[in-house]
Amino acid sequence: MEVEASVTRPHRARRLPTIPTALGLLRDPLGTVERLGAEAAGDPVRIDLGLFRPYLLTHPDHVGRVLRDNCDNYPREGMMWRPLRRLFGDGLGGEGAEWASSRRLIQPLFSARDLTERLDGMAATITAGVDALIREAGPGADTGTGAGAGGGRAVDAEAAMTRIVHDTLVRLFFGGRIGADDAQRLGRAVTTAFTSVTWRMLAPFVPESVPMPGDRAFRRAVAVADDVLLPLVRQCRDGPPGDDRRDLVTVLCHATDADGRAVSDRRVRDDVMAMFGGGTETTALMLTWLWVVLDAHPHVAATLRAEVDAVVGAGPVTAAHLGELRYLRMVLQELLRLYPVGWIIPRAVRDDDVVGGVRIPGGSTVILSPYLTQRMPRVWPDPLTFDPSRFDPERAARQHRFAHFPFSGGPHQCLGGHLFLVEASLIAAATLSRCRPRLVGAPPRPKAAVSLRPDRRVWMVLEPRIARS
Ligand code: HEM
Predict the structure, then answer these.
(1) How do beta strands 358-360 and 452-454 pair?
(2) Residue 437: helix, strand or coil by DSSP?
(3) Among 169, 211, 265, 338, which is most buried by a count of CB atoms within 10 Å?
(4) Does any ligand 1 atom lie closer than 6 A to the CB of residue 103?
(5) How crowded is residue 316: how many other Cβ atoms within 10 Å of its Cβ?
(6) 414: Cβ below 6 Å to ligand 1?
(7) pTM greater than the 0.85 cutoff
């Protein structure tokens, strides 16, 4: 006879109050979420927003239950995802059989092994991008050719990082297939789509029939993406098959799904968009936060510069340097802990479940937040201190798998995690080997949009490096 070990009746989650929360979310989304996280202190709680009453789960055990251990019960569906479907479609950005088919085709292209072959090409694109940035910043920056002696111009850090990331992804995804004008139109459309959908994502309780700020700009951005991508996909399909080009569009156009059918034009468009949308703003914002954090922590910046000097010297940075940039890797992990750009991960609940002793009813929504879990004092002592040594490989190995989940986890784990780490390492090392970014103006604070972004523009000057001995 089977005996159930210890059966405790699931209790109801504590409710956090309705009106102040709803108003707070509209007025100060991140501050309100931080307050809710502090009140929850790791316990499941229910946020009462009137018609919409999601559960907030912050404890790493609870996060693991949703993302990995019982993930079939928590599909990526529901009100908060709906607005993004219009941009990304139903493949890689969706759920179910179509998502699985896209994921199977694309994941191998972005694995560590497959990317290795393409790293030298990436390093060359990135070095050219950093050189162009330094030229744009003017004579204050050291181009490595001896030019420049102070007085450079301030550059918008996010715009500068976006340009370099964008050029890198355009090469990886389109090879030489896309013209510069179309690449720029697509880049602008992605930025507009992400900024304009913020209200819909943060206020999912507002019905779609009620117009919201950003709706029109979002629709226009989706139309531009269609306009650029669909003709490109058709051209690629009509071109000669079987060449050995490994860019994303070519691979998808000549692939077949599990049933042996060609991938439709619409699906290629959707999946390229999901990769492009998922990879541009996230990486550019993380790099923007990197310059903010290095400016605020001179001792971290000095240690990092010493490593880059020892490994890369006067450059240029190459793929061969990556394995030796160990401190840089730790800095990036700590950056992802405190400034996880994917700060909120909602899921629908299919059937009733019990999480942390609390009954989570089918049909409801759960919200996970890397931002809250990764700043929880009971998980990360002294959580607000920026300390890369937390990610010393031995120390990091002792951490709970879901104490740090900036790339999510389980079947939907980010496809670009490895790409981000190599791309960001190359961009950071290329920049630091040539100049010393310094912030101008007051440091920004994090602000919640679709991504976690600075609450003001970040301006920086690129000071020349003092000549190395
Ligand atoms: C710092 C950089 C990045 C962060 C913080 C980040 C974060 C995330 C998170 C949190 C998810 C999971 C969403 C969920 O569980 O529902 C995700 C999924 C995804 N990311 Fe990233 N991402 C980053 C970079 C990239 C890059 C560089 C790419 C591609 C070029 C990319 C492409 C994707 C895709 C396609 C998915 C959907 C995967 C799926 O559902 O199967 N991401 N990302």
Answers:
(1) unpaired
(2) strand
(3) 169
(4) yes
(5) 20
(6) yes
(7) yes
Q: Terminus-to-terminus CA distance in the chain, angstroms?
A: 77
Q: How far is the CA of 204 from the centre of ligand 1 (A)?
A: 21
State whether residue 452 is helix, strand or coil: strand
Q: Is the peptide bond before 316 cis (omega within 30 degrees of 0)?
A: yes
Residues 6+ apart with CB under 8 A from 17: 48
Ligand 1 and 450: CB distance under 6 A:
no
Q: How long a stretch of residues is the chain?
A: 469
**Spatial separation of the C-alpha atoms in residues 138 and 148, rounded to whole Å:** 8
Which of 122, 162, 414 for a ligand 1 pocket mutation test, highest count of atoms within 8 Å of Cβ?
Answer: 414
Our mutation pick for probing the ligand 1 site, out of 282, 369, 418, counting the most ligand atoms within 8 A of Cβ, is: 282
Letter string b/e over residues 113-135, b meaning 16 or more CB atoms within 10 A of that residue's CB: eebeebbeebbbbbbebbbebbe
Could you read off the pLDDT of 188-207 as tens digits, one per residue? Answer: 998 898 888 888 877 777 88
Tens of pLDDT, residue by residue over 71-90, are 999 999 876 777 788 888 88
Q: What angle do CA 167, 308, 109 make, to 5 degrees?
A: 40
Nearest CA residue ID for atom 19, ligand 1: 414
- DSSP, collapsed to helix, strand or coil, labels residue 243 as coil
Nearest to residue 228, comparing CAs of 280, 173, 278, 281?
173
- 375 touches ligand 1 (CB under 6 Å): no
